[in-house]
Amino acid sequence: MMNPGDLPDVIPIFPLSGALLLPRGRLPLHIFEPRYLQMIEDCLKTRARLIGMIQPRRCPGGAEKLSAIGCVGRLTGFSETEDGRYMITLSGISRYRVIEEIEGFTPYRRARVSWADFARDIGPAEHDPGFDRDPFMGLLCRYFGARGLDTDWEAMKDAEEELLINSLAMLLPLEPEDKQALLEAPDLTGRRETLAALMEFALRGCGEEGMQ
Question: How confident is the model over 201-212, as a mean pLDDT?
């Protein structure tokens, strides 16, 4: 566990559409682009080993901007393939708000960020006092059935609420803007409510049979 004072003002950022990292979550990544290979090599030279995941946003005309909020992860797993690609794991530490991008000589992007709004991210697991597991699992079962997905239901039934909700938020096949909404939820209760609403909307909009 890191302390708030350990978090730097400037971090390397990895814009990746549809990829969601949450505090205390784990995100595996396959790195092969030269600029991000360089980012990993530079990251490994630092004590904190931090990389900021963030959603890019497409603007009219094709320009790409960054979302306002991302989540930084500590590089906790690393292996190299024979052809020079990296397989890494980021462990989520805290969300951040982008203040400005930093121009520099690195091939990857960097940003000055603020951690002020996310003090609760650095600490013990959150709890959701209003979490009612049986109705939530029923909704999840309907969603998985309509999507043709499968999972270890026994493990899900026994999982702590933060692990369950955050893992689903990170892994379910949702649109990038939906992933961003889950990231920006103020707390675990808000994230669970947002996740449930997204699953309900998908079931209503497409029908529970033949969802694409």
Answer: 65
Question: Residues 42, 68: one domain?
Answer: yes
Are the beta carbons of 10 and 112 closer than 8 angstroms? yes
Q: pLDDT of 57-87, one tens digit each?
A: 877 776 778 999 999 999 999 999 999 999 9
Residues 117 and 137 in one domain: no
Domain of residue 22: give its range. 4-121
Paired with 79 in beta bridges are: 87
Please tell me the total count of domains within the chain.
Answer: 2
**Greatest Cα pair distance in the chain:** 53
Q: Is the pTM of this model over 0.85?
A: yes
Query: Of 75, 58, 76, nearest to 67 (Cα)?
Result: 58
Condensed to tens digits (0 to 9), the pLDDT of residues 9-32 reads 999 999 999 999 999 999 999 999
Which of helix, strand or coil describes residue 136? helix
